[in-house]
Write a structure and sequence with these properties.
Blueprint: E1 5-14, E2 17-27, E3 32-36, H1 43-51, E4 58-63, E5 66-67, H2 73-76, E6 78-81, H3 93-98, H4 110-123, H5 139-151, E7 157-161, H6 169-186, E8 190-194, H7 197-203, E9 206-211, E10 214-219, H8 221-226, H9 231-236, E11 243-250, E12 253-256, E13 261-264, E14 272-277, E15 282-283, E16 291-298, E17 302-309, E18 312-319, E19 329-330, E20 333-334, E21 340-343, H10 344-351
Parallel strand pairs: 3-8, 3-9, 6-7, 7-8
Antiparallel strand pairs: 1-2, 1-4, 4-5, 9-10, 11-12, 11-14, 12-13, 14-21, 15-20, 16-17, 16-19, 17-18
């Protein structure tokens, strides 16, 4: 079975700016792929190129096994949902949902349009809103209608450009769960772009980390989280952010630039590297040197401690019941099997 979407070496420039620098991407049938990246990474350009709103300068794009590099947007049969709702405020929800089905060339009977609108409304739990003007909807309701306009088309591929960004945190969390359930029930593949790591980790079958128009890593969310291939990828995932240290091996230990011992290790091939360790992989006691608690942040079931650790800072994630106050002294220990080692050659290439 052919992939739903295949990009090979796709390059897109805007003048001297390289928005996409040779992107390779494959999306399987029924797969949810989340593209994660900061502002300016090229996420929106990637979606617009897949949708046919931008033409690549080089490379190829295939949809369902067919070359779609130069197909018009209408020929591609994909549905694109933006972060702004793009509804007609004076139209009813029913009229907004029906709008894409009345496009020239579709030729759908009114009975078919009504059936599709009603089905989408049922799936999105908004049948009670069908006769309400869009201007009277809440933000969450407007986003459901925007997603509904994509559903009624029954496309071969969904593309979503940070569609939940403008919603409050609690609503965003509930809607992303509903969105995943909806897409899985439809069996339609989805490419979803976001800067929000929580969305990437919770929604994706596969996460694609994008930076400066290049794919840095692609894989299952847990694999990318636990085994990032560079410091730049490691920084993209994790809350609090991963602890990173410029380190040198000496006398059986990886040490910080100021000599603070981090973790014991047999002599490595490269004695200079960037070490990374996530906050949940640091034990608060049992380490070789003392550290002072500078900040205690309660996050509900856990607490995040910020420690002054030699000349560095270290985040430690502990249970809510762990007693710690500002000024307390701890002896943090990095779990040796959880420490990530990035040779400096790899770190330099990731920043290039």
């Amino acid at each position: 079975m052919s992939a739903a979407l295949e990009l090979s070496g796709v390059v897109k420039r805007f003048g001297a700016t390289v928005a996409l620098g040779g992107v390779d991407l494959e999306v399987g049938e029924r797969e949810i792929v989340v593209v994660l990246g900061a502002t300016g990474a090229g996420k929106t350009t990637l979606l617009r190129t897949i949708a046919g709103l931008e033409t690549p300068d080089s490379g190829s794009l295939r949809l369902g096994g067919r070359d779609a590099t130069h197909m018009s947007p209408a020929e591609r049969d994909v549905a694109l949902v933006f972060q702004n709702f793009s509804l007609y405020p004076s139209w009813t929800v029913r009229e907004n949902l029906a709008f894409p089905l009345r496009a020239p060339g579709r030729g759908l009977a009114e009975s078919e349009i009504t059936a599709r609108v009603d089905e989408a409304a049922q799936r999105l739990r908004i049948p009670h809103l069908l006769e309400r003007p869009a201007r009277q909807l809440s933000g969450g309701e407007m986003q459901r209608v925007a997603i509904g306009r994509a559903i009624v088309r029954r496309p071969k591929l969904f593309l979503m450009d940070e569609p939940l960004t403008n919603l409050d945190a609690k609503l965003r969390e509930s809607l992303r769960v509903e969105l995943v359930e909806l897409v899985r029930s439809l069996g339609t593949p989805l490419v979803y772009v976001t800067h929000d790591q929580a969305e990437a980790l919770s929604m994706a079958d596969r996460v694609v980390v994008l930076a400066a128009g290049r794919v840095l890593q692609s894989g299952a969310p847990r694999d990318v989280y636990l085994a990032p291939n560079s410091p730049e990828v490691a920084r993209q995932l994790g809350s609090p952010a991963i602890n990173l240290f410029e380190a040198r091996w000496s006398d059986g230990w990886w040490r910080t630039a100021s000599g603070t011992p981090l973790v014991e290790c047999p002599r490595p091939a490269d004695t200079v590297a960037t070490l990374g360790v996530r906050a949940e992989h640091v034990l608060p006691d049992g380490g070789p040197v003392a550290a002072r608690v500078e900040v205690v942040e309660d996050t509900g079931p856990t607490r995040v401690l910020l420690l002054a650790f030699g000349d560095e800072h270290l985040h430690v994630l502990v249970p809510r019941t762990f007693a710690a106050r500002v000024g307390d002294e701890l002896r943090p220990r990095l779990e040796p099997t959880r420490v990530l080692c990035f040779p400096h050659a790899a770190a330099r290439s990731a920043k290039a």
